[in-house]
Amino acid sequence: MNLLIMGLPGAGKGTQADFIVEKYGIPHISTGDIFRAAIKQQTPLGVKAQGYIDQGELVPDDVTCGIVEERLQQPDTKAGYLLDGFPRTIVQAEQLEKMTQKLNKPLDAVLNVDVDPETLVERLSGRFICKNCGATYHKLYKKTRVEGTCDVCGGHAFYQRSDDKPETVKNRLEVNLKMNTPLIDFYSQRNLLHTVNGNQPIADVTQEINQVLSDLH
């Protein structure tokens, strides 16, 4: 089963990826992880990528695609793979199509975990931190037991990281939305796209994904 999982930040992609990997026994290929591995192992492409990163530049498509292709040739992808974080552009999607055809490992499905942006802003901007001991909480998912008091140290002062502020979160989502929309169209035209309702409880999202994948068998 050769899969790609997509979704905006906070959509719960990571949780669903864990389920897919466990159920189908395929590796979770996250571009961040394979970049770090290639750089650590000092592979020729890893060294190239490091050069661009050190200069604060974006790693070009040919290097990124090369690192992904190397990863897809490893023995653990024999039964399939789950791509995450790649492709990010149409050029990369076209390259992926070519390389997977060449390797005889074309995509079977693209799962898009779709959550409405307002819900995502709530999910992502709900985090707050105790100023005294650094314990983290969430206004929806992990509240303090006593309102305004840290469970760990009893402190009463909290702050929010600039990354977690609603405006920053909205901007981040807009950037990702712009990036994802052409890819959704690209995979929709190829009849590979399966949009899953990510507004449901986690177990229901898992069940919906399970249904999509069972139907592919």
Automatic annotation (TrEMBL):
ATP binds at G10, A11, G12, K13, G14, T15, R127, T136, Y137, Q200. Its main location: cytoplasm. The gene is adk. It catalyses: AMP + ATP = 2 ADP. CDD domains: ADK. Residues 30-59 are annotated as: NMP. AMP binds at T31, R36, E57, L58, V59, G85, F86, P87, R88, Q92, R161, R172. Keywords: ATP-binding, Cytoplasm, Kinase, Metal-binding, Nucleotide biosynthesis, Nucleotide-binding, Transferase, Zinc. GO terms for biological process: AMP salvage. It is found in: Cytoplasm. This is Adenylate kinase. Its EC number is 2.7.4.3. GO terms for molecular function: AMP kinase activity; ATP binding; zinc ion binding. Residues 127-163 form the Adenylate kinase active site lid domain. Zn(2+) binds at C130, C133, C150, C153. It comes from the Bacteria. HAMAP family: Adenylate_kinase_Adk. Pathway: Purine metabolism; AMP biosynthesis via salvage pathway; AMP from ADP: step 1/1. It is an enzyme of class 2 (transferase). Monomer. Gene3D superfamilies: P-loop containing nucleotide triphosphate hydrolases. It comes from Fructilactobacillus cliffordii. Consists of three domains, a large central CORE domain and two small peripheral domains, NMPbind and LID, which undergo movements during catalysis. The LID domain closes over the site of phosphoryl transfer upon ATP binding. Assembling and dissambling the active center during each catalytic cycle provides an effective means to prevent ATP hydrolysis. Some bacteria have evolved a zinc-coordinating structure that stabilizes the LID domain. NCBIfam families: adk, PRK00279.1-2, PRK00279.1-3. One of its GO terms (cellular component) is cytoplasm. Belongs to the adenylate kinase family. Catalyzes the reversible transfer of the terminal phosphate group between ATP and AMP. Plays an important role in cellular energy homeostasis and in adenine nucleotide metabolism.
